[in-house]
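One thing: mind reviewing this one?
=====
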Amino acid sequence: MQETKKRGLFITFEGIEGCGKSTQSKALADYFSANNIPFVATREPGGTLISEKIRDILLDVGNTEMNPETELLLYMASRSQHTKEIILPALEEGKHVICDRYYDSTLAYQGAARDLDSNFIDLLIDFATYATSPDITFLLDITLEESQHRMRDRNKDRIEQEAKEFHQKVRAEFLNLAIKYNNRFVIINGSQEPEMILNQIKSEIQQKLDGKNETK
């Protein structure tokens, strides 16, 4: 009788611009690779051919006339394709999925910062993700001042170019979400040295894996 594979761990990274989530996503992927741990590393918006094309539209600085509702639906379209094509198959194969942003970003950016109805967004999220939620979400938190300092020499995309108040709302909502969903959120001080952050991430993931094994 063939043994059923255990579902992989769905790991997401969140935070405001310049917080270091992409750096830590890659560092965790390198760690998994070095230790022969099966995984898939991906990002949002993007991750698939179709989703990456939607990403180009969303982040294009020339698309200044895009309204919040269009933006929301484009993110959801990208996420639906990404979840069905990449995330769910990998998890079912027993691979861990490392995702740079997922639906918490929509709640922060389009919900709080764009002031769109959070209840409606929740319905769209459930539909677009096939009711898939992360097992653990790392929120790399830095101040807005540090974010702006880190971003000062970057060629900013459409979202990154938003006003200071916009990004302040995003940060505040991430912190609210971390409190509301404290069973999966882990807040990490993003101002620490990258190695210290990675060590905290690895420790939290091991605890999560130990917890899953105990419930089997």
User: Anything to note?
Assistant: Strands lie at 10-14, 39-43, 96-100, 136-141, 185-189. The helical segments are 21-34, 49-59, 68-92, 103-113, 118-128, 144-150, 164-180, 194-215. The first helix runs from residue 21 to 34.
